[in-house]
TrEMBL record:
InterPro entries: DUF892_YciF-like (IPR010287), Ferritin-like (IPR012347), Ferritin-like_SF (IPR009078), YciF (IPR047114). Keywords: Coiled coil. It comes from the Bacteria. Signal peptide: none annotated. This is Uncharacterized protein. SUPFAM superfamilies: Ferritin-like.
Length: 179
């Protein structure tokens, strides 16, 4: 990808908006793929809702970029791409359905934390630059990400408890106890 010249705080802001826009698009792809991989109904519905929410968030980011008189830069969100690659590594290992669902939830939690960090910084920059309307749109995305994280954490708790009850869940603890 071509390197863009960044001389002003607004240039950096547009770059970071473009990065999170790319991230939202990657997240939608990851969520749609994961939705077809899992069997847990609550997790499937959560992934579907999150994908739709991410599409809306990408539209808001586009709106903010347009408010700034720019277009999204051709950047790729390497952080989101890395999270997707991590999930695909688990998928390639032929996991059990429960392990796959655990990996999907772990990936969703990491994704939410990444997005929360990104939107927190963008809201702060928009406010500092006096871009009140942009800050409001980005704050809306941030609030949605925080709410989604809570939902993902609830599902993660359920799945973690189910996985802990599976045979082999405590193999390392049992092996060290018998040594």
């Amino acid at each position: 990808m071509a390197t863009m010249s960044m001389k002003t705080p607004q240039d950096l802001f547009i770059h970071e908006l473009s990065d999170i826009h790319s991230g939202e698009q990657i997240v939608v792809q990851m969520l749609e793929q994961a939705q077809g991989m899992v069997q847990h109904p609550q997790l499937q519905e959560g992934l579907r809702m999150h994908a739709e929410q991410s599409r809306q968030q990408a539209r808001r980011v586009e709106q903010v970029i347009q408010m700034m008189g720019a277009q999204p830069h051709p950047v790729e969100c390497h952080a989101a791409k890395g999270l997707m690659q991590s999930l695909m590594e688990v998928v390639a290992s032929d996991p059990s359905p429960q392990v796959l669902e655990g990996a999907v939830v772990a990936g969703a939690m990491k994704t939410e934390h990444l997005e929360i960090a990104g939107y927190t910084g963008l809201v702060e920059k928009a406010r500092a630059m006096g871009q009140t309307e942009a800050a409001q749109l980005l704050q809306e995305n941030l609030q949605e990400e925080m709410q989604m994280l809570q939902q993902v954490e609830q599902i993660a708790t359920q799945l973690t408890q189910q996985m802990a009850a599976m045979p082999g869940a405590n193999a390392a603890a049992q092996a060290s106890a018998s040594s």
